[in-house]
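DATA SHEET
Item: assembly model
Revision: 1
Owner: S.N.
Input lines:
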Amino acid sequence: MPVTIRDVARRAGVSPITVSRAFSGTHPVAEETRRRVLQAAEELGYVPNLVARGMVHKRVPMIGVVVPELANPFFVPIIDAVQAVARERNHMVVISQSQSDPDMERASINQFRQMRMAGALITPASMAPEHLRSLRDHDMPIVVVARCWDDGDCVTVDDVAGGRLVAEHLLRLGHRRIGCVAHGGPGNVAVQARMKGFRSALEAGGCSLPSEWVIRTQTVRLADAIQAAEAFLELSERPTAVFVTADRLAIGFIHRLRARGVRVPEDVAVVGYDDIRYAEFLEVPLTTVALPKYEMGKRAAEILFERISEEGDGKLYRVLLEPKLIVRASCGAQPANRQGHPFAFESVSENPS
Amino acid sequence: MPVTIRDVARRAGVSPITVSRAFSGTHPVAEETRRRVLQAAEELGYVPNLVARGMVHKRVPMIGVVVPELANPFFVPIIDAVQAVARERNHMVVISQSQSDPDMERASINQFRQMRMAGALITPASMAPEHLRSLRDHDMPIVVVARCWDDGDCVTVDDVAGGRLVAEHLLRLGHRRIGCVAHGGPGNVAVQARMKGFRSALEAGGCSLPSEWVIRTQTVRLADAIQAAEAFLELSERPTAVFVTADRLAIGFIHRLRARGVRVPEDVAVVGYDDIRYAEFLEVPLTTVALPKYEMGKRAAEILFERISEEGDGKLYRVLLEPKLIVRASCGAQPANRQGHPFAFESVSENPS
DNA sequence: ATGAAAGCGCTAACAG
DNA sequence: CTGTTAGCGCTTTCAT
């Protein structure tokens, strides 16, 4: 059953190396010879063995991707882009979910290394220096996506600016009592940056962000969103507007608020972050900060392949893309999308990010 | 830089084969020896080479998965389950998106074969026999997920029953003029089955499904959903209820309907299929048919690994799981979830499928 | 419990 | 343009 290059060679009446060349196209092969080889391979049902080739090249045509979770639609356009770039380069993509667990990240990267993959992309849960260092390796290039990284290549968005956009918008709408639901620990530099921009813009506008109004969650999952809503409901004095640092979190947050009789945006304005696919179709269409997700994945993958082929001049990439505020109903700047006003939102977007 | 088993062996003062055994644990190794080996490996920064091992075993510890698109949240729990099972067996998961294109499916399966992967899972866009035959192979087991397959293992849901559930529910609510939006071509056996159950239950209830009221779409994407809504709006006589064969399609369909002033469920009741994650949080909470997605992925992966380890008795698996109707607001059986009635929906589910 | 020899399928390097 | 030689890193016999 295992048809090898030798079998094909024998049948085509050439040497194994010629078969190899006919397939990989690295060396010229006479058209006639090549035809014979291809036909012999066809007849024998030969399938090239990438493992053997990988053995020789000390590298396999695959790249690894580690994301916190596929359940967050935020990562889907990123992965789409990575796969598109990888396909152009004839590389397969191995996807691993870390569940935001640094140990799982490390384990995945380790597997990638054992498999001698060409490179890896990662959105790390934590940017703790010792964790990242344990990921670094000179044999396998790594590019960080959607997070900043000082010691290596990264492609991300200006989260400080993103946070600022939210604060400025809320201030512009007249809010003075503004709170926030923030996910992830101190290792989540993206959220830290959003908060920083948010807070400083608030202060520039003469507002503060009292710590009672900063609700923390571990993850971005529904259970945490609900807890955040409950925490909000228990506040003795509630803010009139809330910045939720991820759309996925905002969905559950708003849902629970409404279930408890708090109207959005009338009682509380909510602004999310990420502009995930479903933000537009929710019970309350979500005002949020859009990130160029597809673009991020694309740039990151391109940089990774540059490292893989050792083309670049070796200087670190630190790509910072621009976020953009998308105004929908949840912040109250537009009338709520109730059934009485069905014409409020005609636009429907289908951009890839 | 390439530290091999020989380097470790030299440093530990043993033979290469002993190092191999210390790592793979296939043969007994004296505790003392093993410690020395592990330490030497640690000091040298040795990383086992799975490619070389794969070369010997003629198989690499990876399985491939082909799904139409990750953008459809339907596939996420399936993938989660597959990854969980694969992790237990120390296998990596390569994910490929076919965009419902049979050629891409074939190409992906081919790559998997070239990479000598242990097996593959696939949700094929088309069950055209010649297409499937081209995917079959005796060297690499394949299990089909979420579709029926007569000539091989498959794990799916009773879509005929699913379609019936929808029809019966709509009839029970008093609808007599019922239409449908169906995606995919004739090769999509899942949708065909849903339609079959739907239609026969309708007829059993004394209703018919006139062909003017069957709107077809190519894919499940937003653009198609919008086209479907426009087609619906142009109907000279409209049904009072519509079965949309996928939630992802229903989202855009409802959105466009509402944007055009058609109320859901008051003017048209809509029932979806899949119960994707966001169905509950939409502008109109979606009545839909829930599928045991995580379970499907789990069973399929388990069957695949049984094939891989050649444990089973070789008889074909044909697992058929049960669908379940989830009633929310879009069918009108519950009051619409407007802001005036915020307590209508307290329940929030966090099941893995 | 450990080792020696042989080879998995392919391709780089060097001929011719 | 084509062939020969050697070896990628590991694990399987088969010995000891």
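QC remark: The longest helix of chain B spans residues 189-204.
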